[in-house]
Design a protein that fits this description.
The complex is a heterodimer of chains A (353) and B (392). With 353 residues, chain A is an alpha/beta fold. Chain A has helices at residues 52-63, 80-89, 107-120, 135-140, 148-165, 203-212, 224-237, 256-269, 290-293, 305-318, 330-341, 346-352; strands spanning 6-10, 68-71, 95-100, 125-129, 170-173, 178-182, 195-199, 215-219, 243-253, 301-304, 320-326. The longest helix of chain A is centred in the middle third of the chain and has 18 residues, at 148-165. Classes of the chains: A alpha/beta (353), B alpha/beta (392).
């Protein structure tokens, strides 16, 4: 028996659009907006702010029955905690995972902000902690820590955040953080801690995950089976049991041909025609073309709803239960996934209840 | 010159009145019959939470004439960034004044959150920057920097925050912060920069205010002392070629008549523990100052009225600073006018309960403001005038 899958969407932090390269929904690429002809009444100017589109995506995910949404840490995009707070406030069920790196705040303050968000939203906040930043990006965020120290700090960050979370009288003396007689008072104390999502395949990354992750997220280009085996062993040593997740771009249509036609159309838009459309990896079935046509550089699945579901089922069989899907344009594709892909997992979902 | 008048949103629950110090709005006190405990209905979770009440206070004060609301930050409160981000889209003109201590957030992160919030609200973020003591030991927050150094850090924090605000690349190497190739991305860059309300009564605070404040914000103090404090800030700022505006945070208990106002205080006073009269913690200079204005010992609540309508016992009836105004609508408006007369450009008013009092103060007091000290234009002493008006 496989576990019930949990499907999340990925929220765009730099605008959205119908086609690759287009970010004309929101205000990230105003020049790409196609104006209405002058003789057509247009009541929009001034009526929509940059967050309208994000709110619309959150509502789409909720209405389409997705379990949650990931707002990735994106130094070149919208700030994830602010986006997450808005999405949470404007939904009733959606769980929202905010991505950030440990340098953004003291762990006490990150926990403090999050305790309020938990209180305001019936405990629907999650954290994705990004530890392995590109060094130049890290320095642009004021973070000069390198190598293994980053994992040591992340470990302390999560230790302190959990330490102050549950009650008063918490003291901590570490390499990176210090707290004296800290800890939250009711009603800020004792809430469910945000679900922690961690990533990475290095030994340091797996060690932190084994001790602190609720969900370890993989990408399709990583050896998921080996990672799960390793983490299973390490987390058992720590007396814990992790869940596993996968970030997965998807392009699903009624049949395989239609899906590949769409892939080809998108590929041509980005000017990839000359190199020809790459084939999916014969071993995994994953298509690497998403790196060019989507927001993330992660390989994903192309095909009919059944084909994509079969691919996902393969991961479910390996023990992956969380699927952070990515699909553009976000609103239309979120509806599509909710209506066409998720029902194919009705049996697994029913089984779990 | 326009006067900006803010209200305050309680981020730690609220009392139904000053008569009893019971915080039965929100979940800060045990649930009893009559508690407004958002989140629980008939013993079950109902999907509402305290932020829904804060949204009510924001809408109430927005519609009754306030330009925005201060969101205070203490260890026991809800967090202002979280609150502002959650409420961003539930008002239309209301400004969110976020209280925070530099050092808890990295300045690049503070810039990113602020810029995204400006985008979510249409530019309605205001800062209330606190550097000094906020009650318990700073190490509760996991902050190791001591009092005077915190002002130096605040300066660096704002240097970095402003440095990245308009894009990059921005490099900085300071004692507390270092960044390389930093800068907000388009279109986060070049949002309107939040106005800075800067608090703190110590020497270090007043010096730092000279450098950074758009508004120097003080608790209410007796007016001559307040004027002297403003003069000090003005002097420090002038030396740096700056001229901040001035703001005062004031609790207001206003009623139709002065008698009715004091009667509220009398009812609350009946429950005050005399031992609570003098208590202080943390390294706040402002608190020590406020206690120095009172002639001890105090036996009766009217002995805390240090000048007409200026009462120093609010901290005994609810959590927060000591001084506020007690009086008729006219008297409170006159005192506010006097404060405008000594140079106040903005007010952060508050009253308990915050929701109902927002309507009362917005509807009954604010319309009476004249915008200047009537003593300077009228031969009548303000009290004579108010009595005369009261008899008409």
């Amino acid at each position: 028996m496989t576990d019930s899958p949990d499907f999340l969407i990925t929220v765009p932090t730099r605008g959205d659009g119908r086609d690759p390269l287009r970010r004309d929904r929101g205000d990230w690429q105003p020049a790409a907006r196609r104006p209405l002809p002058a003789f057509v009444t247009d009541l929009r100017p001034g009526a929509f702010g940059p967050f309208e589109h994000l709110a619309q995506i959150g509502r789409a995910a909720e209405i389409a029955g997705l379990g949650g949404a990931l707002v990735p840490f994106d130094p070149a995009g919208e700030e994830s905690l602010v986006v997450a707070a808005g999405l949470l406030r404007q939904s009733r069920h959606l769980r929202v995972v905010a991505g950030f790196h440990p340098g953004i705040a003291t762990p006490v303050y990150a926990a403090k902000v999050s305790a309020s968000l938990q209180r305001f939203t019936d405990n629907r906040l999650g954290w994705q902690i990004d530890i392995d930043l590109d060094p130049a990006v890290a320095r642009s965020q004021g973070d000069f820590l390198q190598g293994a120290d980053r994992y040591a700090r992340a470990e302390e960050f999560l230790t302190v955040a959990r330490g102050v979370w549950n009650g008063e009288g918490y003291t901590y003396e570490g390499r990176f953080y210090q707290v004296l007689a800290g800890g939250f008072q009711p009603p800020n104390s004792g809430l469910p801690f945000p679900r922690v999502y961690l990533t990475g395949t290095s030994s340091d990354a797996l060690a932190v995950s084994a001790r602190h992750a609720d969900v370890h997220l993989f990408t399709g280009d990583q050896d998921v089976a080996a990672g799960i085996a390793e983490l299973g062993a390490r987390s058992a040593e720590a007396g814990r049991k992790l869940e596993y997740g996968l970030r997965l771009p998807v392009l699903a249509r009624d049949d395989d041909d239609e899906a590949w036609d769409e892939a080809r159309r998108l590929w041509n838009i980005i000017g990839g025609a000359e190199d020809g459309l790459p084939d999916p990896d014969p071993r995994t079935g994953l298509w690497h073309g998403f790196a060019r046509i989507a927001d993330s550089a992660t390989p994903g699945l192309v095909g009919s709803y059944e084909t994509v579901a079969a691919g996902i089922r393969g991961y479910l069989d390996q023990g992956v239960t969380t699927f952070v899907l990515e699909a553009r344009p976000h609103i239309e594709e979120t509806y599509r996934l909710g209506e066409r892909l998720l029902p194919l997992f009705a049996k697994e979902i029913e089984h779990a209840h | 010159m326009p006067i900006d008048i803010y209200w305050r949103i309680g981020t730690h629950g609220d009392q139904p009145s000053l008569r009893r110090r019971v915080s039965s709005r929100g979940e800060w006190a045990p649930v009893v019959p009559g508690s407004l405990t958002p989140g629980i209905r008939d013993g079950r979770r109902d999907g509402y939470s305290y932020v829904d009440h804060m949204a009510d206070v924001a809408r109430a004060s927005e519609s009754s004439g306030f330009v925005g609301g201060l969101l205070p930050s203490f260890p026991f409160t809800d967090d202002p960034w979280a609150t502002a981000a959650a409420l961003a889209r539930e008002t239309t003109t209301y400004r969110f004044m976020i209280a925070y201590q530099p050092g808890f957030l990295h300045p690049v992160q503070a810039a990113r959150m602020s810029a995204s919030l400006q985008r979510a609200t249409g530019g309605r973020v205001v800062y209330n920057i606190i550097s000094g003591g906020g009650g318990p030991a700073q190490l509760w927050w996991g902050d190791r920097v001591d009092h005077d150094d915190r002002y130096a850090r605040t300066s660096e924090f704002l240097d970095v925050l402003k440095g990245v605000w308009n894009g990059g690349p921005f490099d900085y190497e300071g004692r507390f912060y270092r960044v390389e190739g930093a800068g907000l991305p388009e279109p986060l860059a070049r949002q309107p920069f939040p106005e800075i309300y800067f608090s703190g009564s110590s020497k270090a605070a007043i010096e730092a205010a000279g450098r950074h404040a758009d508004y120097y914000l003080s608790w209410l103090e007796p007016f001559p002392e307040l004027a002297a404090k403003f003069a000090q800030v003005r002097e420090h700022s002038a030396a740096l070629g700056r001229a901040p505006k001035f703001a005062v945070r004031i609790d207001v208990l206003a009623r139709e008549t002065e008698e009715a106002a004091w009667d509220e205080i009398r009812r609350g006073w009946a429950h005050v523990d005399p031992a609570a009269l003098r208590s202080a913690d943390g390294d706040s200079v402002g608190w020590l100052r406020s206690q120095s204005f009172i002639s001890w010992p105090v036996r009766d609540y009217r002995e805390l009225e240090v000048s007409p309508n200026v009462w120093g016992g609010f901290h005994l009836l609810r959590g927060g600073p000591a001084f506020g105004l007690v009086g008729s609508y006219e008297q409170v408006a006159e005192r506010l006018d006097e404060l405008i007369g000594i140079g106040v450009d903005a007010f952060i008013l508050a009253g308990v309960p915050h929701l109902e009092e927002a309507y009362r103060v917005g509807e009954e007091v604010l319309p009476l403001l004249r915008g200047h000290d009537i003593r300077q234009t009228s031969p009548l002493h303000p009290h004579t005038l108010s009595i005369a008006k009261g008899t008409i």
